[in-house]
Amino acid sequence: MALAVLAYVGRNWFESMLKSRFAVAEQRIAASLAIRAGLRSHEQNELVAFRIAVEKWEYFLQSGIGDLTMQAESKDFEPADFHKSDLKLFGNVRLAAVKASIFLCDPNLEIELLKTIATIRALYYPLLETTMHDLLETQEQMLPYLNRLRLFEASGQKDTVIALTADEAQVLISLRHQMTAVLQGFAENLSSQYRSIAEQLYELKDKINVRTYRPLTNSEVDPGNG
User: Fold this and answer.
1) Number of domains in the chain
2) Domain carrying residue 145
3) Is residue 19 one of the residues assigned to a domain?
4) pLDDT value at position 221?
5) Taking the chain, what is the end-to-end CA distance rounded to the nearest angstrom?
6) Position 2 in a domain
7) Exposed/middle/buried for 223, CB within 10 Å: 0-12, 13-18, 19+?
């Protein structure tokens, strides 16, 4: 009888100990899971921020040259304005790539992202530099006519000495058409070469999506951390 009582007490004690240990383990797993879920949220935010930075930068590379054309008749325009905006947006992309890799504790990801955006930049820049050169060259030819046109308008269209002749007005129209043609050429060249750029962008976005939407697995939860 005494042995039966001891066995019963011992079994209850052993079961209680196991339940206690299981409860502690479950609490640690839950805590670890909560921490990992919080970190995952930060990781996703940084990866999304990187994608947004890339989209803004690429949009500028595509549309910035059009803005340049719209400003090309302004004597206050400086090519440095374009490069300044590009450097700022490209810097944002690089910073976002570094931050994302830090949150993910993955230096290889940083290398991959920076390598890809550098490749994208190398594909865009030859097109941009050629187009900008042609636009500024056309602008230089237009400025003398534009300055006289502004002065004539400022005089209330009364100072006929500075007014453009019919031939000069036609030259200005031709130069404006030439500027439009330069922009059209940029669009056509970009379209013909965009496949290479699109492939790089797809590869970049695929790398980000794989990490952004990957499930939280048990291997990332350490029951030994409480």
Assistant:
1) 1
2) 41-213
3) no
4) 43
5) 43
6) no
7) middle
